[in-house]
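Whiteboard transcription, Tuesday session. T.W. wrote the structure tokens on the left side:
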């Protein structure tokens, strides 16, 4: 329930409504400086909800950032 509230509040924040997504902007700035980012997740990992909250449920905005690689490891702890 708390994750749903956080996601809703995050999406309704004035900056988000104006297209100014802070975490996404930070990631784009970081990768724009040539930094390569590896994101490792696992099925059911809470980080998947965080990624969806900041980059959209389809994660296309995250996938559009050059320099970001995502890997999903089954049964990772």
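and on the right, the sequence the group agreed on:
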């Amino acid at each position: 329930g708390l994750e749903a509230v956080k996601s809703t509040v995050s999406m309704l924040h004035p900056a988000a409504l104006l297209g100014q997504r802070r975490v996404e902007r930070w990631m784009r700035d970081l990768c724009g400086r040539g930094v390569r980012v590896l994101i490792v997740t696992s099925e059911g990992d809470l980080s998947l909800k965080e990624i969806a909250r900041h980059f959209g449920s389809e994660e296309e905005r995250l996938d559009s950032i050059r320099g970001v690689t995502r890997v999903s490891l089954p049964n990772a702890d």
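Someone added at the bottom: The longest helix spans residues 2-12.
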